[in-house]
Fold:
Amino acid sequence: MSQSNDFQLNDPRIINGWAFFDWANSAFALVITAAIFPGYYVAVTDEVVRVFGVEMSNSSLYAYAISGSYFLIALFSPLLSGIADYGGRRKFFLKFFTVMGSAACLSLYFFKGMDQLATGTIGFMVAMIGFAGGLVFYNAFLPVIVTEDRYDRVSARGFSFGYIGSVILLVGNLAVIFFYDKLGFPDQGAATRFAFLTVGLWWIGFALIPFRRLPSDEKQKATPDLLKRGAQELRKVWAAVKHQKYTRNFLFSFFCYSAGVQTVLFLAATFAEKELHFGTAELIGVVLILQLVAIVGATGFARLSEWKGNKFALITMLLIWVAICLLGYFVHAKWQFYGIAASVGLVMGGIQSLSRSTYSKLIPAETKDPTSYFSFYDVLEKVAIIIGTFSFGFAEQLTGSMRVSLLVLGSFFVAGLLILLTVGVRGGGGGGGGWLGGFAQDNMRLVVTC
Structure:
């Protein structure tokens, strides 16, 4: 990868600065998308709303807002990342999406009810686009700032920073919401909206650290046909990926199991509320368990990968994910669900971290467009979210049971596992030979016979 910037690879200051971006933006992922905003959105809006003359439930509108956000970012991020890579402007777009997302979060402070429905819905969508768009360029910095032997550990550090930082802010926000009267807020709604304000400030505030420490953009002369050049770069990457067997197959595997992973993360709380009748405080407890155990998972599976190889670690996690879906079908007691939540947290951190670092190893070392490669990775994840959540909801609609939907998700993990067995990863037992190759073949037989 060609670099014109004068900086040192594996510089601890740059690495920690990079990881602090996860600390900054993960607050949005936890507080806005998982813990507080979804319940607030449903609580302050009418059960049935009319949008462009069409009546729908407020929860459906919220789901459509998520789908619309991911559709837009999936549509435009390949072009943007191609432009960013051709023009050497990773940092520019990282800043652009961060400012967009954090400003949209600040706008949610003014979302008080139905009179501000457009403000709340559009603000949430723009914040989601800012969050997802920034991740494309954040991920693309990994192979730029560290050597390949550090990918796993540095990737895990980023996720760990994100989990720790987001939990700290969530705990502070919950204290403000539960003790709003003692803190001078007129009502709980005002305290909740203050939480949205803190997320925006936290996001942009801590993002200043990576903005200062990450390598500057390469100086390249702008050209009037930059959009065309960006599209050409994307076509070149896709043409290359089609002939890179392991990279192509890994992306297919990643697509399948991401449909399961991301859907579980988005809808775990909904399952707990609808099937097991969890209350708000209990749901927040579930979210905290997921986040805290994920810290251990991200680090633990990175160590397992160093010991046994990326492929072994990913196969292990996918087997656990399949077990989670099967056991979830039979869960009826709340204490059982807490155990499932802890298991999800364990593999949630590990599979996200190792997927990113494994893909970094599969990108050709001589490539000049890592951002474009990561755009494919990012777009596949976004499309997987759309397909996974739709499949979950459609299965529930047909059967009337979210438990059956879990079995559908289990099939995504099985498909991802089968495809992953065909992938070779550089270093640490990642290839098809040796004892790991035998392990893969044994697992292939096991899955097929089951």
